[in-house]
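Morning F.,

Quick status update on the modeling queue. The single chain you submitted on Monday has been processed. Sequence for confirmation:
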Amino acid sequence: MILTVTPNPALDKFYWLERLPETFAPVEEGILIRAQKSLASAGGKGINVAVFLAAHGLETVAMGFLAGHTGQIVLRDVLARGVSANFVWIDGETRTNVALIVRGREYHPIHIHEEGPTIPDAAVAIFLRKYERMLRYANFVVLAGFLAPGLSPDFYRELARLAKNRGVKVVVHTGGEALLHTFGERPFLVKPDVREALCLGALPLRTKEEILVAGRRVIQEGVEFCLISHHLTGDILISPDGVWEFEARVPLSTFRNIVGADDALVGGILVGLAQGKDFVESVRYGMAAAIASAEVEEKLCLDPDRIVAEMARVEVRQGQR
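Structure tokens below.
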């Protein structure tokens, strides 16, 4: 079983627009933007990974914190997609995140993210009891997304420590301090989230050379695998055994919705491992899943045949150690 933790879930809403106004200068009547199409689904990085895994027939349980009417919508959607749920309910309202996708600029969406409700200490204590029980049945745990208000920067580190003590492999898919604090627990895989800043701590991630320096520093901390995005269609994998570059030969004009593609990548890696693939080939499957997801309007491509077809366009080159 694969356990996913999403501390700050969301209802993801997507609006496709023909164009944005030429100016947002205030006018007396306000500004009206008409959407050509909209979609909504349960979101948050861990939930996206869980939905991807469930669609591939893997047993998965989603954990985190939910609140209010929006939380009920998120829970119903998660369950409808075949994911088991073990959330802690808190006061307030689960956040709603909005993405504006403009025609011709689908690869560059505009994100509006709410902060989300504050997690009280009593809810954290309940969550930790539930989490320790669930670890008895897990092979992997995925710690994904930025932390909710009220949570300590060490929250993921504590979850990684508890998982490690149970012999459960840990995947960390986040950024900032929360990611850096987990390195001491030697997670199996880290996939830094670089959407807000192209850096890993104080180390920049603008060029291939900078990525290699940062990735090797992570491996020196005891992490088994570090996968860092180089650009929209490329990633670099660093491990103690070597370096691999993954490049998807696809034009950006084919993209329809890149939100969730990174989560499909992480989910695809876990699916590949569950299918008996080695790690490099599992990352290749994950890259294909990410590209397939970016090419559909839905947040995730859940069609295994389409993902397998995309693998033909993912090139892998082994670099210097």
